[in-house]
What we know:
This protein is mostly helical and 188 residues long. It is built from ten helices and no strands. It has helices at residues 2-12, 19-36, 41-54, 58-75, 78-94, 98-108, 119-136, 140-154, 160-180, 184-187.
Amino acid sequence: AVKYGVKRGYDIYCIPDGSNESVQILTEALELAKEINYDNIEDVYFELGRAYWYEDRLVESINTKLEALSIARGKNIKSKMANISIDIGVNYLYSGNYDEAKTYLSRVLTYKLKDESKWPIIKSYALLNLIECYIKLEDYDSAKESIEILDNNIENIEDGRNKEDFTTIAYINKADLQTELGNPLESI
């Protein structure tokens, strides 16, 4: 029931007017998960945090994801720690708290994952958002450095579609950086 509650909550929080119902479903799933000592309770917290985000409940969203991160850290599940940290970092980025965003996004780059094939994708996603964060903080040297790391990392992505997507978004980051540096022709 918990597993299906999480899946149902995930399915509907992105649709118009679905986030409120999603919060309700995921809150009930979390209560049940606590009651039965559910093995993957961090997943319930994480999805509830995402549903809160779509409800524009920023503080609850981040606090719930921080609980998910704490549980994943206690279990030493690096892949979950990385995904949750990225999500928290992106939440801070879009809410304008760039220093906190930088903290969570850069932390992801220190993780070593067991499944090496997923690592370049996770690392690229963290780097794309970290570059945007550095640009917002006007730390252009760190943005340039991260772009170089990203370009090298993209080469390690085996999935052609993901590689193309990350390459495209990397160009957007590069254009943003050039615009901020006062190089509109380079940006174009």
